[in-house]
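pasting for ref
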Amino acid sequence: MDVVVIFNGLGNQMSQYAYYLAKKKVNPNTKVIFDVMSKHNHYGYDLERAFGIKMNKTLLIKILQIIYIFSRKFRLFKSVGVRTIYEPLNYDYTPLLMQKGPWGINYYVGGWHSEKNFINVPDEVKKAFMFREQPNEDRFNEWLQVIRGDNSSVSVHIRRGDYMNIEPTGYYQFNGVATLDYYHEAIDYIRQYVDTPHFYVFSNDLDWCKEQFGVENFFYIECNQGVNSWRDMYLMSECHYHINANSTFSWWGAWLCKFEDSITVCPERFIRNVVTKDFYPERWHKIKSC
């Protein structure tokens, strides 16, 4: 039995769920579980909050969750056919991992961020990731209508906060990738193709953003906080063009964009000093920044 594990924040959960949909196409018996140890990361299980995707709570799923927790602590589970299969650290697409796993219980743990992982089920993915409407959120809906009516809308995602506090010895160095120079170059690139672009800024450090970019043709989205942070991605996806951070959050905001003539700009790397050749779609414009 193949089991895809959901964990971390919304962007990660979406990539993992998309991978599950692709694996299920190959092996209809594939299951998906939420790692309960991850419920305190970010805002817990966000797929239901954003898209109404409920996690199955059958007895089988609960048993699979328990086995997963204990298999991480006790190696003896390997002797009875319980395995954890990891994605490569640089997120390279691995066709072999799309095949049905060997006998036993195979837990697939990774980000699975390359669209090559789910290129066989794009319609299923887009259908699954249809944002829930927010009829009673006036400020959010005002921004939604503004962006939908703006053919020159550009989402700008700037992630600081947690990215600024990463231990310098760790593998996942997300800081120092989407630099200020990167954003200035990305903005200049968009201006080559869009007359009078309007930049809608989404960030966990809007004060810093305002200091760097000012207010002329820049608009700062402040209405989506805490458990409602997912709504930033909704607004991003409605923008015509995109300037991404090295983040799965804006990755999905751009990927879900419905405009065929859309332009997405992203950093060349996802992790500083690590080549991630499959992370970003080939059609996106990549800027070398580190």
